[in-house]
Amino acid sequence: MDSFSEALLSELQHTTEVLKRANLADRSPNVPDLEPCYQEQTRRPPSRHGLDSLEHMLDDYTEKRKEYTGKY
């Protein structure tokens, strides 16, 4: 993987973490989505390749990067 791709993935991982924290902090469990237009998609069975979600892919990348660099 070249340095540009690694930098892009790192930035994407950071952005995803920030958005995840903001979403958890701002959302009340009793407030429904304004437009639940993606409701049907959440009912699909998981794909077979295991990387059906961005979060899972980024977690895998983080673990592999930790193993490669030896940093925690």
From TrEMBL:
- Under what name is this protein listed? TGFB1
Q: Where is the composition biased (Basic and acidic residues)?
A: 49-72
Instruction: For the region Disordered, give the residue spans.
Output: 21-72
